[in-house]
Design a protein that fits this description.
Chain lengths: ~200, ~200
Amino acid sequence: MLRDNHSIKLLDEAVEAFSSLPGVGRKSALRLALHILNQPRESVDRFVKSISSLSKDIKYCPVCRMISDSGLCPFCGDKSRDSSIICVVESIRDVLSIENTSQYNGHYHILGGIISPMDGVGPNDLPIKELIDRIASGDVLEVVFALSTSMEGETTSFYLFKKLSQFPIKITTIARGVGFGDELEYTDELTLGRSILNRQLFKP
Amino acid sequence: MLRDNHSIKLLDEAVEAFSSLPGVGRKSALRLALHILNQPRESVDRFVKSISSLSKDIKYCPVCRMISDSGLCPFCGDKSRDSSIICVVESIRDVLSIENTSQYNGHYHILGGIISPMDGVGPNDLPIKELIDRIASGDVLEVVFALSTSMEGETTSFYLFKKLSQFPIKITTIARGVGFGDELEYTDELTLGRSILNRQLFKP
């Protein structure tokens, strides 16, 4: 912002802080810092407290590892949801995306990562034993894999499949295919190929 | 994010907080909140402290009203700058924009607003008396208006001109290189820098 001999430390530090956020460049960071300067003290306090609380007070569901305000997450704690089906996802964000569709009413299991030898993440770094324990407890009828189609995602799905095939449950994976509204000509070959192999009866 | 029956209060509040920032929509706010969740406690503490300090500990220069860490701002406190020339601007951001051009080495006077009857801002709401006092003290040889070319900016320049014409000083305004209707903060550095170098006598 300002050359060294005129720098204002408090401003520079706030700009630095905002720049650390994903997708926020230095110009936007400056804009945000100046916005903060224009806000009444109390609303800045509220802003700061919300973010601080998210980091400090958030709990993780002991069953599925979703975030929660306290104890069980809103899904594991909801008796109206189907506890016989568990959807395995990589992240909290994936749960939010799936919930957004209003098409799923079961429980979740959040791995918090995927098996990736390149990044030094092995099966033992993920809560896979916890997933097996949930299934071993006997109430689960189906596990749905909703992991990414990357090499790591496929590896993780395959690893889980081997581990879970000892149980008398249905193991499924979300359908892959050409997205709604996507043009065939712009769809990658792998996706298009899979969607032909996995073609389904046309039900008009 | 989540429907009411599954909402997670701590997450919702953080998303709400981020959404209150200018230019941050709900999707980006969610991304930022999830980013915060992934950060170690200490870096969130640092982030929050920088923003809190900016709001709580920032001082305003008693001479020109620029922000500062303490006492005089870096410009008024810099003996190598020319104190015989004062540039009148609307906001802190305008000072940063002008400094960015490296074309100005004088002092500033920040109005913190412009005369705008529509918004209920009159001359008495701005530190105009303070500007007159600075000039009356006798060291000032030139005042440069660097206000926006909006109706309100022009009105303010004209009002200041009338007030300052009692003094034996040069009154200038930045050159009309800045497009009409353009805001100083969005003007490219070359145009803004040129418009300061080519400042012209204010002729109402």
